[in-house]
Amino acid sequence: AETGAVSFMFSHVGVIEYEARIASADAVLEAAIDAGAEDVTSNEDGHQIIATPDSLNDLTKALEAKFGEPRKSAMLWKPQNTIALDDEAGEKILKLIESLDDSDDVQNVYANFEVSDALMQKMSA
Known about the structure:
single chain, alpha+beta, four-stranded antiparallel beta sheet
């Protein structure tokens, strides 16, 4: 029943994630774009490759041949726009999402908010 609202705010995309140590950002970017990726983001946490829903399977196979098995390959809902929250509101939302994640009845939680790095560190400590 909520699919219309979800597809308006979120895009269904394929996501492939690798550990940072598998290759340099340039090597992953080149291989991913050559294999048909839509976007690539690399940082100290790893490499995230974005694919269209139709190309996820083929892109995963192409990258596996070059870099081995990814830590994640899945279809996700990616927000089309994000909303910045102050630390007070961010802390409430993060606690809500943690509660939802802990529920056995909830499979996945997707959100479109941004919080400060300082708050993320505080909440994960």
